[in-house]
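User: I've been trying to design a sequence by hand for this structure and keep getting stuck. Would you show me what you'd pick, starting by listing the structure so we're on the same page?

Assistant: Good idea, let's start from the same input. This is the structure you sent:
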């Protein structure tokens, strides 16, 4: 049976090896496909605008059925009761 320290050492080696292979893979992908990746970058910014609107719109207070026509203090008082 393996000791806990042996298991930790094997885990450390596994992650180091995986990181090394990932770095090598990223390097070669970047070298071969740099023009494609950088060419798509402006479109990613354009796509980010509607995605941010959809996912971050909840912070504007557009969520409750009682939110229209009430001030912030009135809404807070209604939640406490």
């Amino acid at each position: 049976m393996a000791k806990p320290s042996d298991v930790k050492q094997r885990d450390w080696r596994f992650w180091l090896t995986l990181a090394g292979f990932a770095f090598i893979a990223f390097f070669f992908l970047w070298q071969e496909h740099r023009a494609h990746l950088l060419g798509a970058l402006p479109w990613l910014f354009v796509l980010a605008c509607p995605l941010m609107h959809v996912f971050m719109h909840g912070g504007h207070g557009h969520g409750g059925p009682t939110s229209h026509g009430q001030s912030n203090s009135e809404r807070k008082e209604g939640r406490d009761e």
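That's my pick for every position. To get oriented when you compare it with your attempt: The two ends are 60 Å apart (CA to CA). The chain has a mean pLDDT of 78.
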